[in-house]
Each structure stands twice: as C-alpha cells, then as structure tokens.
C-alpha cells in the first residue's frame, strides 16, 4: 500500500517544530508501524534528507521505548498495543497518517518524535521502591502472599513506563503511571511499611515535574499498552488520603 | 574529566545489580547505557529464574547440588564447576532479595512463590512473574538503583575501552544527543553490555540493541574472549519474526508437531523428556525435521497448545497468546503456532573468573557479554536471569574490595583515546569508498546463519571465515557516513557493524578450530564429544592479523564428565 505521512520534525526542545509531508511507498500490510518508518527513512537517507528520529528497541512491546502519537492517539489506538505492535494492516491504501511525539509539559521534545521522559524516573526516585532492607540474611524466607493479591500487584506492575497515559491525558497527568507503582507496592506486605511516605513523596514529585491532575477522562486507561486499570488511581487516592490523616 | 570509582557499562540486570552492590558498599558509582535502563533487553526475558527454595512443592529432595548438576550436564561439561556451584548456592538468596525489594512473583494457591518445570531437570524450580519475569526483575532493580541516586549517563554509547599497560583506565562514550565524545575515567570498569545476537540479525530473538559491541570493544582492547563459538538457538522462535515463544509453553505441555502430524521429539530423546530436552538438542531436532522436508513450507514446524484448552492457555500463557495474535495473526487456542529455531543467547563472551575479573586489571564483565562460564556449551532455560544478578552483585562486591588499594586511572590515556575516536569519526565522514555498510551487515548475518548456524562443517565454516575477511575488507571501503554530530545513528550503526564483524569472526574461527560436537556447537563432520582433546575453553585474542586461538582447562572437581543423555 501507499501512504501519505505527516510527521512532526523538530530539531530540539528550543526550536519550533512543524509537520512535514512524506510519501511511504510499497508498504507491506504485515509490517509494524516502526518498520514502515524504517522504509521511509531509507528513502529519506537516499535523498539526502535527515531521517526521522524516533525511540524504539525491542519491537515486541515490552521495552516501552516507542512513543508515537498516531492520528492523535498515543500508540495508535489498537487495544493493549505499543506502537511497535501496531501492524500496517490496520491502515488502508491511500491513507494519510499524522505522526507526532508524546506531548506533555513534563516531556520536552528531544528531537522529532523523541521525548525526554526522565521526569518519570524522578517520580520513581522519590519513592517508587522498597527501601527497608529485609533481604540478604541467611535465614530470611520468602514472604507468603495470597495468590489473588499477588496477581493484582502483578497486573499493576506490568507498567513499562512508556508515558502514553501522560500523552493521552488532556491534563498531561501521570496519575496512571504513579498509581500503578503505588498500587503494586502498597498491595504487597514488603511495600506496606513505607506506604504513607511513598505516596506523599511520589505525588509531590509528580507536581514538581509539571504533570497535571486527574479529572477522570479515562483516556489513560484506553491507551495503556499493558491495559492497567484506572482503579489504580482510585486506590492511590485512598492511599494518599490515608497518608494525610496519619 | 568525569571520574568515578566504579563505572558500569550497560543498564540491564547485570549492570544494575553491579551498580546497586557497588552503591551498597559505599563506592562512587556511575552507569553508562546506550538505552535507558528499563528499556534494556533483560526486560524481554519471559520465562523465569531458577532457584531451589526450601519449601519446594513436590521437590523435597531438590537441592542446589542438583541444580548445579543439571546445569553442568546441560552445559555438556564445559561449564566451570566452581562458578556453577556459586550461582546455584546463591540462587535462593537472589529470589528472596528480589522478593523483599518488591518484585512480584507468581504465587501458588497457598501463597508461596510458584515454580514451574523448565527443560533438563526433573524438578520444578523456575520462579516466574507471569510471562514477564525479566520485566519485573528489571523494574525492581531499577527502583533499587534510583533509591541510591545512582548517577546515570543514558543514551551514551561506549565506543572505546581504554586499556594501557595491562590496566583499564575507563571508556570513551559517544553522547547521542550532543554528538560529542566524552571520556569517563574509572578506577574499575565493568561491562554488562549483553549478547551478540544481532550477528544473526536475520533470525534472532534478540533486540536491535544486542549487537555484541561490548565484546568487540573488549577484544580490540586486548581482553581475551572465551567460547564464543557456543551460540544458543532457541527451538521456538515465532515464524518468521523470530520473536521468542517461551519454553514455558512446552513446560505447560505444548507439543512440537511436524507436517505428518507426528510428535517428532520421541525420535530424538526419551519419552520422558520429549519437548523438554535441552535447547540445543530440541533446536537440532526441529531443524532436522525441516531439512528432511517434514516441516511446513520447508521453514517451520508447529508448536501445538490446543490440547491444553482455552482455560489453561488464558491463565498460564496469556502473554504468548497475545504475542501470537499480534505478530502471527493466529490464536493458539484454535491453531498451532508456527515456530523455527532462532538465535537466542551468547554462551561465550569476555573471559572472566568467578569474581568477574578479567586479565586486565580494573576491568570486569558480567551477564551475557561475559563468560564465567556457567553455561558452558549450552545454557538451561531460567539460568540467564539468575546469572545476571548473581554475578552482577559478585562483581560489584569484588570491585568494592579492589578499589581502596587501586591506582587512580591515568587521565592522559583517556584524552588520547578521545582524540583517536575523533579521528576515526573524521575518517568515516570522509569515507574511502562506495560500500554500503548495511549491505555488509545483511550479508554477514546471512553467512553466519547459513554456514555457522545450527549444523556446522569444516567446508562451510572455512567459507564463512574467508567471506568474513572479505566483508571486513569491504568495510574498510565504506561510503562516507552522515556528517551531523547530534543523533548520528549512521555513525553508531557503522560502529556496531564493525563490532558485528569482529564477533562473527571470533565465532566462526573458534568454531572452525573446534573439531568435536559439544552442546550448541554441532559438527556434522565430527558428530561426537571428544573430551580427551576438547574438554577445554577456547580463548581468542585480538591481533592485527586476525584472531589468535588458545585454550585453557575447564574447572571440574565436583562432577566427573559423563555422557549427556536425555
């Protein structure tokens, strides 16, 4: 199939960007969206045009590197898929596709379709871990955890840190990302010890980074490639209230 | 100049484990990674991590010794037994530490860490977190690393290891965003740079990032490379994308079927073992079926899960089901999965001892880029995640012992190296010919797959060695690279391709010299294991005229070599 692409090009965070139009020829419907961009880039390189820069690595939906907004939807709108899992068979010959980076105040554009997502790291650094060292001792045993609780924690821990939730939200909120980590750790006994300070610090850092608040648009849940439930946000709000009254 | 006591290169599990250990021991640690750590390929590991836990269900007589025995038997007796013992003894501690740090493991009905059966053992000792074990471990260790406010230089690519006078002084990095070469001086440098799967880029389960550049940089700096001819082919890569279909499918009861509807593994191993034989034997069996015309489209066989039923597939293998639907357009509940053997793991690597030390003072290596060796000639499923954390930590600890009495790195050596890298860049920009580097990469992968793949022989490998030399010659005449400094991926790929050529040459030359069959190295012209002459590690060193091969003994001492039978 042949496609017309409108691609966001931007030299760096300071300079203004613009949409450029490119043609993609002879695209196989079994290609992933990223392979399609590879084909376009090969063509651009041959023409002496700087290739389109985009983040990518594993191409099997687990590394969380790919970060494209396709026709206005982060990761392209296929349920439970990252951009690299999106196949070209979801498009039609002759389609015009707009490709933009994940946009948020807290995600400055690095170049073209690449954004700086280190704000998410700083939120984790504020408390998204277990700091009580209970391991290592020779007589330490595994902690028994009820299977249903462990399964729930694991669903929240599926987050790959791609940031699609932020890009999809009108408020550029990182609530789904933060609440997934808070929910995962507060469900487990080993994470309960620090639950109050964790949620307080992570929420504070989230505000410092310039992420917005949640006003229940549910867009984050719709685009999350790991299908993390928005229930995590409700859970985090409860954790936060609990921490405030303690 | 940037300067640290411990500089870890690579942000996957081994690198993070070393960095966390270094931090816990009070070192000034920094981590350089060409990807953000959580994007590392460790995160793609699906299956699990092996450990004998005390309360093992139905496995009361399992023990770390049995784990070691299975590992050594699986390795076709090429593994160093002291290192295997350390790994298996440490395994339960690793699981408990990771669990206490918040890593979610799948649980049994009564709340204990669940275990499943992987290949080559009678015991269920593979702990797992759904089908995302690597992801959960990586996120957990990343949390630990940021907890210690680890200094990270991400999206910086190390392009040179600086060694002089038998000592390592640090590295030169290329900062992708700024396009500058940046030296980092380090008292101790640890490589945890991953495997070299992209040498087989046409058919590998590895991510684009696993190019083997770290192995090549160490080799160029004079560090010996061990046993690189042992390349693991996973029996079940999804056809044709080669995305990994985890061994758990067979652990749950998945069957390999040829085009005659026959469950063919019974012709290769005992009825008791069937699909859960060692990866090298199962991969060869699958390839034999395909070569004999009993595959589908002469390219793949079927992995059939249908008899497990929808409930079990949805509960136990949801990730695999989704992957098959997304990438192959088939639902394994209703249709068998098309699979073929795909390059999966690099057993060999930078030669280290059981403390991750190399021959170069101040230079260490751990994880897939290193060869301790715990996997010998064939790695068992569930042992690679284990190796990364065990030896990452041991490395961090060995470095903490080394640093207080070590000499400071010599900064002038790094300044010289930066100038050399700058001049290499300038040479590449000027260009000296017309060869297309990407065509060299494609052809290299094709040659390696065809001639140094699952079945090997003298004639094929000699041709491969000659062709690699020609490709190296072509590489010295490539077209000019892109001139921009910032985001110059052309330069980075050319650097990676040069590394691919080195790694391929070491693999091919080492494999050609080894005139026996052992584990994943199978020669049709020497089909048996020959302990009298070949129970030894290949050691490959760089010379300007090409690789120089030598050998060193395998550390035995616990289990006597015996015939490997399944």
Describe the structure.
The complex is a heterodimer of chains A (246) and B (566). Chain A is an alpha+beta fold and 246 residues long. Chain A has two domains: 3-111, Ubiquitin-like (UB roll); 117-245, Alpha-helical ferredoxin (Fumarate Reductase Iron-sulfur Protein, Chain B, domain 2). Chain A contains nine helices and seven strands; from the N terminus they run ββαβββββαααααααα. In chain A, the strands form two sheets. In chain A, strands 2-1-5-3-4 form a five-stranded mixed beta sheet. A two-stranded antiparallel ribbon of chain A has the order 6-7. Chain A is elongated. Chain B is α/β, with parallel strands linked by helices and 566 residues long. Chain B has helices at 13-24, 64-74, 81-100, 133-147, 213-220, 248-251, 279-291, 309-316, 318-328, 383-402, 411-430, 437-451, 458-475, 489-513, 531-534, and strands spanning 2-9, 29-33, 49-50, 115-116, 126-127, 151-154, 156-164, 167-175, 181-191, 225-226, 231-238, 255-257, 301-304, 337-346, 349-351, 363-365, 370-371, 455-456, 522-523, 536-541, 548-553. In chain B, the strands form five sheets. In chain B, strands 1, 2, 6, 7, 8, 9 and 16 form a seven-stranded mixed beta sheet that branches. Classes of the chains: A alpha+beta (246), B alpha/beta (566). The interface between A and B is large, with 55 and 60 residues.
Give the helix/strand layout.
The complex is a heterodimer of chains A (246) and B (566).
Chain A: E1 3-9, E2 18-24, H1 33-46, E3 68-70, E4 73-74, E5 96-101, E6 109-111, E7 114-115, H2 118-125, H3 147-156, H4 164-168, H5 175-187, H6 189-192, H7 195-208, H8 219-223, H9 231-245
Parallel strand pairs in A: 1-5
Antiparallel strand pairs in A: 1-2, 3-4, 3-5, 6-7
Helix pairs in contact in A: 2-7, 3-5, 5-7, 5-9, 7-9
Chain B: E1 2-9, H1 13-24, E2 29-33, E3 49-50, H2 64-74, H3 81-100, E4 115-116, E5 126-127, H4 133-147, E6 151-154, E7 156-164, E8 167-175, E9 181-191, H5 213-220, E10 225-226, E11 231-238, H6 248-251, E12 255-257, H7 279-291, E13 301-304, H8 309-316, H9 318-328, E14 337-346, E15 349-351, E16 363-365, E17 370-371, H10 383-402, H11 411-430, H12 437-451, E18 455-456, H13 458-475, H14 489-513, E19 522-523, H15 531-534, E20 536-541, E21 548-553
Helix pairs in contact in B: 1-4, 1-10, 2-3, 3-10, 5-14, 12-13, 12-14, 13-14
